Amino acid sequence: MNFGASNGILVVIYGEFWRLFSAMFLHGSLLHITFNMLSLWFVGRAVEGWISRFSYLVIYFSSGIIGGLVSIYFHPNTVAIGASGAIFGIFGAMGGFVFANRERLIYLENFLKEFGVILLLNFLIGVVFDSIDLSAHIGGLIVGFIGGLMVGISKRLIFIYLIGSIVFAILFYRYLESIFYGINPILN
After folding, report:
1. Which of these, 38, 68, 182, 188, could form a disulfide with 20 (CB 3.0-4.6 Å)?
2. Is residue 6 domain-resident?
């Protein structure tokens, strides 16, 4: 906890928002960081080649932070570390970008098969190991898919995506506050 792990009580009750960011740089073991780095090496390099570095970073951090908030929603008392929500955001960005450009891709069917196998394997690993937070993975995947789709349509849409991600994160955080404090966000 002293190094910046995320936890619902610390993030929502004590307002330690920075933990949503810092937790992405912490890992539980050498194996954990190795798998994350390999994922970024294989998938991240391809995605970075398709979109700008700025878009990549916006999608990465938006997916990681919103994935962290989704994790807090489903597991408010859990101590969370790792970049999996952000990395799944990059997987999602790949899928969204491909979907936006599907008419121009020659090997779309092969890509979809391989992409589906990678996602299925990661999902199964998440089911088998209790310590893996599938909610952060799925949250990051969805946020990344939206970013990849928008950038795939037009690279300029990254700014709308960034603003939308910030607004969504703030609103979702406020919703989490209402749950933690037991108040109705509509009436307050």
Report:
1. 68
2. no
Residue among 84, 52, 83, 64 nearest 150 (CA): 52
Tens-place pLDDT, residues 50-108: 899 999 999 999 999 999 999 999 988 888 888 889 999 999 999 999 889 888 777 76
Structural domain harbouring 32 = 28-74+83-181
Contact residues for 171 (Cβ-Cβ < 8 A; gap 6+): none
Q: SS3 sequence, 108-136?
A: HHHHHHHHHHHHHHHHHHHHHCCCCCHHH
The catalytic position among 55, 84, 135, 165 is: 84
Active-site residue 137, yes or no? yes
Within 10 angstroms of residue 12's Cβ, the number of other Cβ atoms is: 22
Give me the amino acid identity at 77.
Answer: N
> Which position among 27, 71, 135, 137 bears the catalytic label?
137
Q: Tell me the CATH number at 160.
A: 1.20.1540
| pLDDT tens readout for residues 96-141 | 998 898 887 777 677 777 777 877 877 777 777 766 778 899 999 9
